[in-house]
Amino acid sequence: MTDLLGWRSIFFVNVPIGITTILLILWKLKDEWAECKGDIFDLTGSIIYGLAVLAVMYGFSVIPELKGAALIAVGIIGMLIFALYEMLIPSPALDIALLTKNRTFAFSNLSALINYSATYAVTFLLSLYLQYTKGFTPEYAGFILVVQPVVQAMISPIAGQLSDRVEPRIVASAGMALTTIGLLLLVFLTEEISLWYLIFSLLLLGAGYGLFSSPNTNAIMSSVDKKFYGVASGMNGTMRLLGQMLSMGVAMMIFAIFIGPIEITPDYYPQFFLSLHYAFILFTIFCFIGIFASLVRGKASSINYPGIPAEGKKTAK
Asked: In this structure, are residues 64 and 19 in contact, taking their beta carbons and an 8 Å threshold?
């Protein structure tokens, strides 16, 4: 699509996908539960939260400008205000006890944040690498990069089923470890390196993503009572989006430091490879830390829901 219709076309393709999703929801999702009847919608908390997230996301988009750092600081302060406010009202948008008293929920979401922070910019960086240093067209570069999501799509369903029989933290942590190895291999990218080396790295990344994503989502949803399913799903989505923005923010900050606001030409390839080198080092470190965040989340069988006695409580599957 980039080759034939320009880069903006990749955004327009989401319009029919979104419309199809809405139609499927209206057509197929007939039955719902209402576990929160009587609760008042937390409009004030939602506004504080939304503005804080907006400040953080926009801040990362303009890093390394001073305005970006200031906006991120404002966003963090807004998050703290949101957390304090949520602890003071009877019907919060986010029950803070889910994070303070539910270890599985807290660390599973932290693992998701780390994973997306370490991996989302990889496709962007490798697309530049393949087009600039290998001279590939966007189409050919895309065919190479699609190896990763194809492998992920093949492994994710298997990993999801496996996490129903094996502790999700074990499966997800193994996926995080594979992802770490794949990122570590990318640290050593050079202009002369074999294309098969890159494809092997993408295979490892795809397998790691697949092993991590489904079991980690399983752990998040299984760690809360039915009443909190919407909150858990929303938190998981927020960790994904914040991680993606953080990942791109780190990549852009490194480019700004080593290359600056200029077009990447062959004269700047040494700086370009230096940027790739440091970006993949940071992402590898992120993911390595994520292995331990994933492992310390606790066993699914020992889940204790906030405000609900652990005795007789079964893990939701």
From this structure: no
Q: Would you say the C-alpha torsion 169, 236, 125, 199 has a positive or negative sign? A: positive
Asked whether the whole model's pTM tops 0.85, one would answer no
What CATH architecture applies to the domain 102-317?
Answer: Up-down Bundle (1.20)
d(CA 233, CA 144): 32
Cα–chain-centroid distance for residue 169?
17
| Per-residue model confidence as pLDDT tens digits over 87-106 | 888 888 888 888 888 888 88
Rounded CA gap, 277 and 194, in Å? 17
H helices present in the chain, as ranges: 2-5, 9-12, 14-28, 43-61, 66-86, 97-100, 103-132, 138-145, 147-165, 168-186, 195-222, 229-258, 269-295
Domain extents in the chain: 41-94, 102-317
56-68 confidence digits (pLDDT tens): 888 877 777 788 8
Whole-number pLDDT of residue 299:
67
Q: Report the pLDDT value the prediction gives residue 214, as an integer from 0 to 100.
A: 87
